[in-house]
Amino acid sequence: MKITHAYAAQDAKAKLAPFEFQPRELREKDVQIEILFCGVCHSDLHQARNEWRNTIYPVVPGHEIVGRVTAVGTQASKYKQGDIVGVGCLVDSCRSCPSCQEGLEQYCENGFVGTYNGTDRFDGSNTYGGYSSQIVVHEDFVLRVPENLELAGVAPLLCAGITTYSPLRHWNVGPGHKVGIVGLGGLGHMGVKLAHAMGAKVVLFTTSPSKIEDGKRLGADEVVISKDADQMAQHANSFDFILNTVAAQHDLDQFTTLLKRDGTMTLVGVPEHSHPSPAVFNLIFKRRSIAGSLIGGIAETQEMLDFCGKHGITSDIEMIDMDYINEAYERMLKSDVKYRFVIDIKSLRKQVA
Ligand code: NAP
Ligand code: ZN
Ligand code: ZN
């Protein structure tokens, strides 16, 4: 099989740079995908820089993948050459534990296999992600892409979309609910769009006054500057649910006090350094909860893609060439992304041609 061209980080301090590797030979149920677009998730940056202290180098990030099927294994039946497909954060799991049996592969009790920085269950090799020209994945972890959606804007749905869709569904967000989305980045802007499409009243919390107009355009009924204590106080005790997507350590109490009795704030951001411990009084006096949520299972990811197809939802993107990735990371750290970088993988092919 032809060599895969990619971008990798060789250690926590290194910039991402060209890298090549030999893909595995197709197994019976594998699908080989020529990658067209790959979104840039803040998790890619955390992982490339070893901020979660578990990175295996070299690391090829990227788990928001859209591409075209170029070959399938002898026993693969779900996809055929030419199909447009997606791959998200998972490429395998044990498939037999209670979580896998329930279609919650992201909570696999034996550990799911990540699209990158994961360990292949058969040959023990390190998995490489979507900042690359092609990927080989078991057909059960490949998604169908709705035909009506623009492909570059679909790529971020594979992580940012499902990571916000899954908790919104799990906590039954819908008409009559007042829902807060904290942070207008890749995840947050999908949270705003999805919660709005589910029929909730949506309030966006942002630290960036420059994002107020965009927040409303994307579907927020109201935008609150979270650094403004007076604006925050007006929303005390009023939210059914808050989805917090912030990628950095911050004070959670300013948001828990905005929850109604029995309200929940779910954290999806995974900052390098833990948040300060939340005040217990804020929780016990109104039986409020702080929860967490991890991406979504394969069936729910397909459900999310179909929901986005039905509602015409894609990510707002800034398309970049592969060699812009290091600048893109710096801009992501300054919250300067509107609202997801997506790599045009054509630029990687051109670079090596
Ligand atoms: P992102 O595009 O960088 O967006 C994060 C947003 O957080 C920023 O745009 C900014 O929004 C806000 N923010 C940043 N620094 C802040 C600070 N110091 N205080 C308050 N707000 C701040 O990142 P992303 O790709 O959406 O990812 C967000 C987080 O989710 C990352 O930690 C990522 O690793 C994690 N993640 C988790 C899962 C999961 O399964 N749980 C999946 C994917 C990603 P404003 O400018 O609007 O304030
Ligand atoms: Zn991600
Ligand atoms: Zn399992």
Automatic annotation (TrEMBL):
Q: Which family does it belong to?
A: Belongs to the zinc-containing alcohol dehydrogenase family.
Q: Which PROSITE patterns match?
A: ADH_ZINC (PS00059), D_2_HYDROXYACID_DH_1 (PS00065)
* UniProt GO molecular function: alcohol dehydrogenase (NADP+) activity; zinc ion binding
For this entry, the protein name equals: Hydroxyacid dehydrogenase
Question: By its UniProt entry, which Pfam families does this protein fall under?
Answer: ADH_N, ADH_zinc_N
Keywords attached to this Swiss-Prot or TrEMBL record, sorted alphabetically, are:
Metal-binding, Oxidoreductase, Zinc
InterPro entries membership = ADH-like_C, ADH-like_N, ADH_Zn_CS, CAD-like, D-isomer_DH_CS1, ER, GroES-like_sf, NAD(P)-bd_dom_sf
Q: Which top-rank group of organisms is this from?
A: Bacteria
User: Which part of the chain is the Enoyl reductase (ER) domain?
Assistant: 9-343
Needed cofactors, names only, are: Zn(2+)
